[in-house]
Specification:
The chain is mainly α and 147 residues long. 61% of the residues lie in helices and 0% in strands.
């Protein structure tokens, strides 16, 4: 099977299964690394390359034309965040975000969805207003109201 076809199969079938539900994860660095390792194992296997061949990950990703999974995870989370924030104030999703949480004990605070989103927004240099704008592709596909 040609590499181009394998890349399309990976993007349409394998990656969505790997990232299922990732928009709701409060992901830690170690978990993100595990997903990355899993992705590279699959891509290396599909390319017929082993670690002993000493082929760089960037080269393998380039041959399949696949973006790093960490970028896709971030993109997925931010897309979901924008979707949730565009809902009405009294919608179930918005109310669930404001649920009270219990007092934490000693030690480092657990990673939360909010902390993950705020880090993603900081890295992408986005603000709250930007995420609440409707995507431009949606505006172009709407029909004009007949007058």
């Amino acid at each position: 099977m040609p590499i181009k076809t394998k890349g399309k199969v990976y993007k349409t079938a394998v990656r969505p299964a790997l990232m299922y539900g990732s928009e709701c994860w409060a992901i830690k660095k170690a978990q993100e690394q595990r997903v990355h390792v899993n992705e590279m194992k699959m891509l290396r296997w599909a390319a017929g390359v082993t670690r002993l061949d000493k082929v760089r990950n960037e080269y393998i990703r380039g041959s399949f034309k696949v973006a790093p999974i960490s970028e896709k995870l971030t993109e997925q989370r931010l897309r979901w965040y924008g979707h949730v924030m565009r809902r009405e104030e009294n919608h179930v999703l918005r109310r669930a975000l404001n649920l009270p949480y219990r007092r934490r004990g000693l030690g480092r605070p657990p990673a939360t969805w909010w902390s993950t989103i705020s880090k993603d927004m900081e890295r992408a240099q986005l603000n709250k207003q930007t995420t609440q704008d409707r995507p431009s592709w949606r505006m172009r596909t709407r029909r004009a109201d007949p007058k």
